[in-house]
Amino acid sequence: MIECVSEQAMKILLAYSGGLDTSVAIIWLQKQYNAEIIGFCSDIGQEEDLEGARAKALRTGAKACHVLDQRDEFVRDFVFPAIRGAAVYEGEYFLGTALARPCIARGMMEIAAREGCGAIAHGATGKGNDQVRFELAAYWFNPSIKIIAPWREWEFKSRSELMAFATQQKIPVEASAAKPYSIDRNILHTSYEGGVLEDPDKEPPAEMFQRTIDPRKAPNQPRDVEIRFEKGNPVAVDGQAMGPSALLAELNKIAGEHGVGRADVVEDRFVGMKSRGVYETPGGTVLHKAHRAVASLTMDREAMRLRDSLATEYAALIYRGFWFSPEREALQKLIDAVNEPVTGVARLRLFKGNLMVIGRNAARSLYRADIVTFEDDRGSYDQRDAGGFIRLNALRLRTTAVAYRGSTTK
Fold first, then answer.
1. For 258-354, where are the alpha helices, taking DSSP H only?
2. Which domains does the chain have, with CATH numbers?
3. Which of 91, 130, 220, 257 is deepest in the core (most CB within 10 A)?
4. Which residues are catalytic?
């Protein structure tokens, strides 16, 4: 039995979702730590009944449960910066869960300080990335906070055992033996993992997907959409200005109806194993594509090359839980600086799961038709300059050829 910190009951803030793991955690933490449990629910656009979750937490034994609306905060302060930075993990994953965790942790630590909690707890497993993300963020805000991760301590070894305990304790949960995979949802994405998805060669069940239609069943007519950016941030859809979460929600609806945004990924977790995740990121997929379309007109070539060369590192920092770190903040300053000129409009076409750019324009476009044209070659660009340019760039290659193969230079 774990000893209590003092004779007075420990006060623990639990990141609570209303799901299986955290519902069981309320009872387990109370018994194991003689603890007073305060629940924390973050609204990051998961479109769940959080007031219902709050009521459930209280029925299960929590003394209080806070519900915090973080939707605009999540999109403005986490999603949009990642889009400006072209942050895509291992080429396919748009970091929906990885971006949500530091946002939730920031809100959680605010409530923990307000409630005077000496400890926090979460429902992340000991095999995943979320434990790292939550805890690194928590230590950033309070270096002395006590962190309890039930999955690393309790006697339960599987979700099946958790379901059996929940049934015994009369805790209603959505998970079942018939649908054992885990679902995580927020306004940026829905992710699915575990259970039937643990075989990477098995196609995901068609009925699993929540927010994108099967591309084969999508409308037979394409949908064109126009997105306006200001300094790298999306601000309007089809000419209508919108706030951060409203804009992303609108694009989720449009893209989801046309089957855009699905990804089936085998990724490398930070803890060292490969895992399979299936993701739906409809609006986020559109925004990444649209941002690059506008950046291609407005961002200096070398600035974009530098940003893109750092994008892999930037995405890895986010994925591994280092959103709140000196290195991520330093990278963000560079990313935001090169996004200053990224103001303009991208037009995209969505059709049966496909997404293509069909146009882009910007007032400060670096694209010069008078320079690039093949039709009129007078004045703007002297093609004769290219010869010297090529010879200078070839100098090291020609020198190497002489040294290695004995060729001559003339």
1. 282-298, 301-319, 326-338
2. 10-71+94-180 (3.40.50.620), 184-361 (3.90.1260.10), 369-404 (no CATH)
3. 130
4. 21, 101, 130, 182
